[in-house]
Specification:
single chain, alpha+beta, Ribosomal Protein S5, domain 2, Alpha-Beta Plaits, 2 domains, eight-stranded mixed β-sheet, four-stranded antiparallel β-sheet, 10 helices, about 35% helix, binds 4-diphosphocytidyl-2-C-methyl-D-erythritol 2-phosphate, binds adenosine-5'-diphosphate, ATP binding, isoprene biosynthesis, transferase, 4-diphosphocytidyl-2-C-methyl-D-erythritol kinase, EC 2.7.1.148
């Protein structure tokens, strides 16, 4: 008689907080031959996050490959999802054994908002798989892999307060931004990142951010200085077409924000507050008009 040992099924899982980012500054300094633009921007992680759970299963009779699910039904769950593509890339580049890899994303970061929602999910998947497969990739190797998925992924892998140059991948660590409260408000329209970069090509940028000033303020732990140097060349382009950007900024400033700016390619506008109760009140009032309003804080 032939005895076959029942194959052992092993599960391993990890849950990662995938944090959003805001841009404290964003300057576009040139255009490369491949169409990508060179940038100089100061980026900051915030506490608002998606939760990404990654489970690897080995020994099942029928391995199922990468299986992604998401709390938001309108987001794609195949290779159009950046988190799915991150897993595909990880297995392809490391040669780790793929049987079943389940990814579940609990989405809290508003989508297509200038907050790097997709990029941070992708970064979370790379980190999770590196740990689950004990692949031993260094931070630099993960960032190199992440850049193949999108310009913001390397920052999302590292987080904190950073100067980003190149197309966003050349990162320099800056002193932590002084802690403050952040009210985020996403008006109900989408602005594709690619289009904003294209529009930048056809306008004269009259006012560039003073990144040196911003970095000096960060070096001194000077919160008021940070608020004074907030600047984003993309805000001018989008605010000219969408009156809500200016309206939200004015509302935040009139209700206690120490500084306001559009994040990334928008359309999310944020206000920085040193005072939590003022931030709470402003968020509560703004939420009556814009449902996608969040109260969060800086996170290093
Ligand atoms: C504008 C920023 C600022 O932080 O953020 P978001 O508004 O997306 O959050 C980033 O530069 C967005 O980075 P990310 O969203 O990762 O961009 P990618 O997916 O790599 O590129 C989307 C498209 O934007 C354009 N693009 C992106 C980055 C860059 N430095 N130059 C570009 O021209 C390209 O046309 C590209 O096809
Ligand atoms: N995991 C994901 N989370 C959010 N959006 C995603 C994801 N994967 C792919 N996308 C797509 O990426 C586009 C940009 O979304 P997002 O990354 O949230 O914006 P932004 O780059 O402005 O921060 C959306 O149109 C969305 O359909």
């Amino acid at each position: 008689m032939l005895f076959r040992r029942k194959q052992e099924i092993t599960h391993a899982d990890t849950t990662v907080r995938a944090r959003a980012k805001i841009n404290l500054t964003l300057d576009v300094t040139g255009r490369r031959e491949d169409g990508y633009h060179t940038v100089e921007m100061v980026m900051q992680s915030i506490a608002l996050h998606d939760t990404v759970r990654v489970t690897t299963i080995h020994g099942e009779k029928k391995p199922r490959g990468i299986v992604l699910s998401c709390s938001l039904p309108f987001l794609p769950t195949d290779e159009r999802n950046l988190a799915y593509r991150a897993a595909e890339l990880f297995y392809k580049e490391t040669g780790a054994l793929l049987e079943t890899c389940e990814i579940h994303i609990e989405k809290r970061i508003p989508v297509a908002a200038g907050l790097a929602g997709g990029s941070t999910d992708a970064a979370a998947v790379l980190r999770a798989l590196n740990a689950l497969h004990t692949a031993g990739l260094t931070d630099d190797e993960l960032c190199e892999m992440g850049l193949k998925l999108g310009a913001d992924v390397p920052f999302c892998l590292r987080g904190g307060t950073m100067l980003a140059q190149g197309i966003g991948e050349e990162l320099s660590l800056l002193p932590d931004m002084p802690h403050c409260w952040v009210v985020l408000c996403k008006p109900p329209f989408a602005v594709p990142t690619k289009e904003v970069y294209q529009e930048i090509d056809s306008v004269d940028i009259l006012e560039h951010p003073d990144n040196k000033g911003m970095m000096a303020a960060l070096n001194q732990g000077d919160y008021e200085g940070v608020c004074a140097y907030l600047s984003n060349v993309m805000e001018t382009v989008t605010a000219a077409k969408r009156r809500q950007i200016g309206e939200i900024k004015s509302f935040l400033a009139e209700n206690g924000a120490d500084g306001t700016l559009m994040s990334g390619s928008g359309p999310t506008v944020y206000g920085l507050f040193s005072d939590e109760s003022r931030a709470k009140t402003a968020a509560k009032m703004l939420r009556r008009r814009f449902a996608d309003t969040f109260l969060t804080e800086t996170c290093n």
